[in-house]
């Protein structure tokens, strides 16, 4: 990803910043000009909770360029609690433990490093929902 | 009063982060001594392939924010202390500030003072809040420490740390009633630019390094606030191994009951700039209102920061709002030396 491309998308990648449509009130991710549900102009920025569940997934043993060092890993369609579906890597998970419907939460991780001298690209991934203290 | 903030300052939110992988000391001993050496810790925390000081700081910061429940745009500085910043030039602080929504009206910078970088940020943050320049400051100590393969420090060089959101004492879960620093030019551990692994001066790093700063800093603090070791409910000091902190705290007159909650090094190793700070999060997770805590950090090069802290009634409201430090310690996945070599990028050819 170019430095400019990474810069433009940094908020959505780091923190799942999307939008809420002012007309149909549905959540939109990633942010865009027009609401994909009602075709009205999209609304103000809104940070999604980051919670959701695995809708579908695949295990990657042959990774595309730039991701070879991470193999094997899993990519999932995650249905967020607010509605939008996102594609993302799963992390901090045993590949055999992943199942459809698994509760997950967003974490900001390193997506890839562009060589030894290039930029480091950070973004959202999902991990199994961590048990909290109470 | 000189050397203290004009307005009282406290911790309004705190959060820990420890990655899930663990390398048992027995694995290092197996590879480098045929099992003959005894590891100074049970195991150490190891970051995953997609983790670094920035990502770990982001999660700790989110936990601190969840506890404080404040608007992140009111944060006036995001300061990250570490000796493993992902970039040599470009601040970790801006990455963290962007991820938590603290931008754009915030300072964001990185601190470097070996293992003392995190408490250095904490003290500076006290000055910022305590002078009225800031409503809130986020001070982080976080590291993915590098241990040279086969070196004694490989057993302990761990990963983890903590984030502290400082703010007005009246909103605090713990008030920092006094802080001080104690430094000297002591070259006990260092890393030159463009080298990957640190060098150290073997036994010299104990005394005059570690003991020569931790012990007098703690003594000065107790003189200043007129306390004795038995007045503290908890004590936590920098933890490069188990032996050093236990010897220092015993020498000062503390007992195991006082250091139990904060001594995490047997489980996660030395988290460098995060070491004393992540110990403090484990203490706060179980602290009760009115309890007193003494924290003393240590960074090579060399110096200590000491903090006299009093827990407030608010602590009970926030403890359960984010994962506790032991939630992270318990989600452990043991790895062997080969996976460790891969995860830490130590393979020569790949």
Structure description:
The complex is a heterodimer of chains A (134) and B (350). The relative contact order of chain A is 0.18. Chain A has one domain. The mean pLDDT of chain A is 94. Chain A has helices at 3-8, 10-15, and strands at residues 17-20, 27-28, 45-47, 51-60, 73-80, 85-90, 103-113, 120-128. Helix content of chain A is 9%, strand content 40%. With 134 residues, chain A is mainly beta. Chain A starts with a helix and ends in a 6-residue tail after the last strand. With 350 residues, chain B is an alpha/beta fold. Chain B has two domains: 8-173 and 320-343, Peroxisomal Thiolase, Chain A, domain 1 (3-Layer(aba) Sandwich); 175-317, Thiolase/Chalcone synthase (Peroxisomal Thiolase, Chain A, domain 1), CATH 3.40.47.10. In chain B, 33% of the residues lie in helices and 23% in strands. The longest helix of chain B has 19 residues, at 206-224. Chain B starts with 8 loop residues before the first strand and ends in a 7-residue tail after the last helix. The mean pLDDT of chain B is 96. At the A-B interface, α2, β7 and β8 of A face α2 and α3 of B.
Layout of strands and helices, then pairs:
The complex is a heterodimer of chains A (134) and B (350).
Chain A: H1 3-8, H2 10-15, E1 17-20, E2 27-28, E3 45-47, E4 51-60, E5 73-80, E6 85-90, E7 103-113, E8 120-128
Antiparallel strand pairs in A: 1-2, 1-3, 4-5, 4-7, 5-6, 7-8
Chain B: E1 9-17, E2 21-24, H1 25-33, E3 43-46, H2 53-68, E4 75-81, H3 92-100, E5 107-111, H4 117-130, E6 136-144, E7 159-168, E8 174-183, E9 189-190, E10 199-200, H5 206-224, E11 234-237, H6 243-252, H7 256-259, H8 265-268, H9 275-286, E12 292-296, E13 303-311, H10 315-318, H11 325-330, E14 333-334, H12 337-343
Parallel strand pairs in B: 2-14, 4-5, 4-6, 11-12
Antiparallel strand pairs in B: 1-7, 1-8, 2-3, 6-7, 8-13, 9-10, 12-13
Helix pairs in contact in B: 2-3, 5-6
């Amino acid at each position: 990803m170019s430095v400019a491309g990474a810069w433009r998308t940094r908020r959505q990648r780091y923190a799942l910043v999307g939008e809420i449509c002012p007309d149909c009130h549905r959540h939109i991710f990633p942010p865009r000009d027009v609401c994909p549900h009602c075709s009205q102009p999209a609304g103000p920025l809104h940070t999604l909770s980051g919670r959701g569940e695995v809708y579908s997934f695949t295990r990657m043993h042959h990774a595309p360029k730039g991701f070879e060092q991470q193999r094997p890993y899993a990519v999932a369609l995650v249905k967020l609690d607010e509605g939008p579906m996102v594609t993302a890597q799963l992390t901090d998970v045993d590949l055999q433990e992943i199942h459809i419907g698994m509760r997950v939460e967003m974490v900001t991780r390193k997506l890839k490093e562009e060589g030894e001298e290039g930029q480091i690209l950070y973004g959202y991934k999902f991990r199994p929902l961590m048990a909290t203290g109470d | 009063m000189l050397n203290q903030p004009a307005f009282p300052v406290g911790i309004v939110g705190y959060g820990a982060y420890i990655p899930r992988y663990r390398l048992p000391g027995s694995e290092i001993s197996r590879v480098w001594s045929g099992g003959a050496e005894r590891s100074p810790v049970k195991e150490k925390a190891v970051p995953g392939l997609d983790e670094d000081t920035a990502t770990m700081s982001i999660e700790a910061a989110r936990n601190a924010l969840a506890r404080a429940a404040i608007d992140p745009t009111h944060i006036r500085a995001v300061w990250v202390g570490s000796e493993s910043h992902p970039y040599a030039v470009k601040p970790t602080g801006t990455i963290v500030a962007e991820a938590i929504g603290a931008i754009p009206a915030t300072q964001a910078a990185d601190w470097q003072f070996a293992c003392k970088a995190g408490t250095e940020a904490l003290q500076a943050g006290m000055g910022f809040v305590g002078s009225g320049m800031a409503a809130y400051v986020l001070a982080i100590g976080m590291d993915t420490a590098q241990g040279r393969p086969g070196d004694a420090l490989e057993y302990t060089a761990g990963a983890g740390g903590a984030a502290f959101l400082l703010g007005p004492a009246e909103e605090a879960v713990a008030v920092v009633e006094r802080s001080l620093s104690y430094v000297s030019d002591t070259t006990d551990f260092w890393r030159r630019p463009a080298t990957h692994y640190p060098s150290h001066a073997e036994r010299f790093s104990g005394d005059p390094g570690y003991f020569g700063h931790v012990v007098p800093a703690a003594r000065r603090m107790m003189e200043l606030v007129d306390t004795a070791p038995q007045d503290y409910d908890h004590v936590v000091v920098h933890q490069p191994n188990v032996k050093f902190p236990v010897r220092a705290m015993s020498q000062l007159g503390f007992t195991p009951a006082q250091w139990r909650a904060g001594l995490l090094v047997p489980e996660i190793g030395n988290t460098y700039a995060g070491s004393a700070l992540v110990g403090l999060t484990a203490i706060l997770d179980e602290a009760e209102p009115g309890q007193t805590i003494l924290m003393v950090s240590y960074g090579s090069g060399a110096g200590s920061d000491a903090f006299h802290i009093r827990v407030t009634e608010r602590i009970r409201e926030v403890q359960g709002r984010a994962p506790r430090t032991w939630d992270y310690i318990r989600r452990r996945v043991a790895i062997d030396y080969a996976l460790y070599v891969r995860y830490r990028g130590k393979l020569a050819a790949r």
